[in-house]
Structures are given as C-alpha cells and as structure tokens.
Amino acid sequence: MRIEHDLKSEFRRALEDVTPPAPWLRAAVNKELRNSRHRGWRPMHVGSLVAALLVVLLIAAVVVGVNAWRNGALNPRPLPAGEANAITVKAYQAMISGDDQQFLIANNFTCTSFDDRSCLPNVALADAATLKWLEDLNRSEPPARFVALNALMRRHLALVLSDDIDFVAAFKTQVANGKGKAASAAIVAEMVVLERLAGDAGASGRGSASAYAADVVFQRTVMLGCGVCQPLVSQTLVSCQADQAPICIDDIAAVRLQLETFIEDLVKVSAPDSLAQKDASLQADLVSAYKACDAMANAVSAGDQVGFQTGLALLRQELARIDADATNIGGSH
Amino acid sequence: MVVHQAAMTLVDEAKGGDAAAFEILLDPLLEPGYRLACGMLHDHHAAEDAVQEAALKAWRKLKQLRDGMEMRPWFLGIVANECRSTRRSQWWSVVKSVLPERTTEESTEAVLSGLELRRALIAMDERKRVVLVLHWYLDLPLEEIATATGSSLHAVESRLQRGTRELRRRMEGQHAYRT
Q: B27: domain CATH number?
C-alpha cells in the first residue's frame, strides 16, 4: 500500500513539474466549440455520418472525373523530380525548428549557485524540453538528406540529458563541486552545437550534382588532411597510456569535429536525386566513423587500451570507406 | 443516483444538439483530459491542442456514446487517441508561447526522481503508458481505464502490472547510473 501511494505521488510530482495549470483551457475549448457550431457541426448519428460520407465521396468522384476528363489527366503524368519529398523535408524542418526554439526558451535561465534551489524547477523544465526533442527524433523517420545529422542531434541531446543528472546532483552537496561545474559547462557547449545543427537543418537546400560533388571532394580533402587529426587518421602507431590520455582525447575530438563539419555540409548542400544512393552510403560511413570516435573516447576514459585500439582500427576502416565514397561521388561529376 | 440520472438527462439533451448541456458535461472532464495529455505528450502546448481537438470530436461523435455509458472514460479515450495521432503526425512541434516561470523550491531528490520518472515513462510503449497515466496519475478505476482504452479488464490489469514493473526497472536503471 505504501509503494502504491509513493508511486502516485511520484507521478504527480514528476508530471506537474512540467505541466503548468491551464485555467484558460475551458474558455478556449468552449470558444472552439461555438466556432465549430457556427460552421454547422452537430452531433451526428452513425447512419447519417455514413450517408454524409457517401455523398461527399460521390461529389468528389464526380468533380475529379469531370476535371480529369476536361484536363486530359486520365493519362498519367509523372510528378516533377523532388516534389514528392518536399512536404516531408518541410515537416522535419518545422519539427526541428520548433523543438530547438522550445529547448532554447527552456534553457534560458541562470542558476547563481548550487545552493539556489529555486533554480531546480527550471532545470526540470529544460530537461523536459530536451527529452521532447529527443523523443520527436526517435519517433520520426528523417528524410534521406538528414539521416546523419539526425544521428548527431540524438547524440548531443543524449549528452545534455546525462549532464542534466550530474548538474541536478550537484545541488545535493550545495557547493560548486567539479562535477556540477563541468556538467554546467558541458550543457552550454552542447546547446551551442545543437543550435548550429538545428540551423543547418533549417537552412538545408538541394544542390546541383556538380556543386554537391565539389563540396564532398573538398570536405574529404579537409578531413583527411587535417593536421591535428593525423595521429589517428594516418597509419601510425598510437598509444593512449595514462599520461597520453588527455592528448588522445584531444585528437579524438579533432577528428570528431571534422566528421561533424562534413555531415553538416552534406545537409547544407544536399545531394540531388541522381546521387541519393551514393550520398546515403557516405552518410552511413560518416556516422560509423563518428561512432568509432565515441567508442575510442569511452575506452580512453575507462583506461581500456584494447578497446581504444579496436575503435581506432574501426575508425581507419571507416575513413577509408569515406575516402572511397567521396572519390566515387567526385569521379561521377 | 440522482446525480447519475441528471448526467444521463444532460447526455440526452446534448445528443439532441443542446450545446449548453454538452458544455456542462464536458467541463469537469477538461482538467483530467489535459492531465492525461500532458502525461502522454510531456508538452503542455501539444496537450492543450489534443484536448481541444478531442472536445470537438466528442461533440461530433456524441451520438456514439452508448446509453448508460459513463462520459468520463469515453472522453478520455478520445483524448488518448488524439495524443496517439498527435505523436504520429509530428506536426504540432511549434512553439506558441514561452514556458511558464517556476519559482517553487523543490528538493534535489524530488527533481531527480521527476527526471527519472519522465524519462522512464516516455521510453515506454504507448499502450502501457496510457494505462499507467490513467491509473497512477489520474487515479481512474480499472473499469474506466478498460472503457477508455477499449480493452478488457483483464488486459488492463496485466498491462498495469507489467507496465509498473517496467517503469520501476527503468527508473532504477537510471538511479544506478547517477549514484
């Protein structure tokens, strides 16, 4: 019985943290109902509903038939290229833009210190906005051009969620301990990245085959030629023993940044239909390389040398694939 | 009994097209509908939209409310369906106003457990989630949950039991992570 009571109060607390009262809802609903009645909506019998539906369908069929006959539309005509995906891309952009705005609004607060508990409800709201963004991504299939960007956003949102826990936990000790400060700085850094990724999604446009191919070749050159990335990108032996760990982490971060830039560029100037398949393969390899970086970073943090070397081998394998994908795209245009 | 009969008379009147009767019937259901939608969607703007849309649908489909059937589970069922289609369509993700300011002081543990519960709940299957929200948050009897979800009482009991276990497991998993 005690457990039952606990869960009820936990639900109430958890959901009411992020659920403001809505005293205006009754007036809004009643207004909407009155408007609908002015438009002629009334409770309908199931029978009359079916009859009405049949009439509507009949009228629609007649109108379509007459139009089709008049316009010669009975001979099928293909839709212009790219038009079929336009709505999906727009819907995805609208979703990301909305989630990003809500995320920014929710995160627009400052906690003066870790003993300022009045700040905690704001953290709860910010966390809910992050969770909602991630949930939207989890429940939607991104259009082809956003697949890799989608994976990046999911990763950064997951990092914010994990930092939120550390940030809130720091209030327990009521002192600005290292973990809490680090979490706070990490959240701010992730916000900057997420803002940029959301901007990329919003600004995405379809490029011509030559513009897209030129962009891919350029990004490939920058990535493989990146000076600070060379220890990991070139086939040299790399050790990440304890004293070398911070350097390794920096090297991994440098490669990760190059991969992110490459992925973002593919969204800004997205592939035309003729290169969609090659673009999908390139995006998949970029994401795999990115995941290899994460695996390496986790291994370094855990002092796992074998895990690091496995991740490094995978990264180099994926980089070779990216190189081949880019050459293939560049060679076709 | 008198109250029940009065409600039934109102239902008849509303079915006959009496808008005022429908508003009286709907009024006490808006708050639980909103809470259900918030529990399902974790977004109060989307929750308000879902309740408004559900109210319109309830008015249009009122004739489908069978004689003797309680209005509350019927309306909450429409809200739950509206939440499902809202989640599917993903069109609602547009900011309409700023978030409310919260100044209440809360304990760190309460905030942490709130974060954990919301994350655990949002990761769950929608059919289990709706039963958990209706039971643990709205305190609805199992019979009404069965009506609202269009399931048998047995199915609701089993979903509630399995869902609660899963919720606890997910919350404990996150708790272990942070300690």
A: 1.10.1740.10
Residue A95, token pair as written in the block: 């979703």
Residue B93 has its nearest CB partner, among A94, A117, A127, at: A94
Same-domain status, B116 and B86: no
Per-residue pLDDT tens over the stretch B85-94 = 775 444 333 3
**Better pLDDT: A120 or B29:** B29
- For residue B164, the chain A residues in CB contact (below 8 A) are 7
Chain A, 104-123: which have a CB under 8 Å from a chain B CB?
A: 105-106, 117-118, 120-123
Task: Retrieve residue B60's tokens.
Answer: 């249009």
Q: Is A124 on the interface with B (CB under 8 A)?
A: yes
- Chain A / chain B CB contacts < 8 angstroms: 186
Q: How many CB atoms lie within 10 A of CB B174?
A: 20
Residue B99 domain-assigned (yes or no): no
Q: In this predicted model, what pLDDT tens digit does every residue of A39-56 receive, in sequence order?
A: 665 565 555 555 555 555
Touching check for B5 and chain A: CB below 8 Å? no
C-alpha closest to that of B13 among B58, B61, B63: B63
Q: Based on the domain organization, do B77 and B111 belong to the same domain?
A: no
Residue B103 has pLDDT above 70, yes or no: no
Chain A positions in Cβ-Cβ contact with residue B107 (cut-off 8 Å): 117
Is residue B98 in some structural domain?
Answer: no
Q: Could you tell me if residue B43 is inside a domain?
A: yes
Domain extent at residue B48: 1-91
3-state DSSP assignment of residue A205:
strand
**Is A90 touching B (CB cutoff 8 A)?**
no
Contacts of B35 (CB under 8 A, 6+ apart): A15, A19, B133, B137, B138
Query: According to the model, what pLDDT value does residue A261 have?
Result: 94
With CB atoms and an 8 Å threshold, state whether A19 touches B98.
no
Tens digits of residue pLDDT in A165-209? 888 888 776 655 677 778 888 888 999 999 999 999 999 999 899
Phi, psi of A181 (to 5 degrees): -65, -45
- Single residue among B91, B115, B138 that ends a domain in this structure: B91
- Give the best-scoring range by mean pLDDT among A207-221, A228-242, B35-49: A207-221
Q: What is the CATH number of the domain that holds B113?
A: 1.10.10.10
